[in-house]
Amino acid sequence: xxxxxxxxxxxxxxxxxxxxxxxxxxxxxxxxxxxxxxxxxxxxxxxxxxxxxxxxxxxxxxxxxxxxxxxxxxxxxxxxxxxxxxxxxxxxxxxxxxxxxxxxxxxxxxxxxxxxxxxxxxxxxxxxxxxxxxxxxxxxxxx
Length: 143
Hints:
Elements lengths: L10 H8 L4 E6 L6 H4 L3 E9 L21 E4 L9 H16 L10 E3 L2 H4 L10 E3 L11
């Protein structure tokens, strides 16, 4: 499932192979690289949901791309669900309950203690991480 011209995964061809009649919805957390190419994968009255921008923000696009199939697009975010301290606590309690019951599994592939100013420095990495309080005498790193 790799494009011969770019060497990158060709998700469009693979989705068309798996779902030849089109999709009811696309949930895109990647953004710039995948959102617009995923629109033709939708069937009539389909919905494209963008919830992340791992590859960058979705670029502006002509809304007429949606017209031929009467598609709809939405951008969701956590801030729409958290308006005040009470709603924040409610959402957090729900999340932690889902983790506690095993409905959501948390996989921390490494732990590293860093100072707060190091975290603000724009360091990028792949995978999940657990950040804890700085310990000047020891840093915790997994292999």
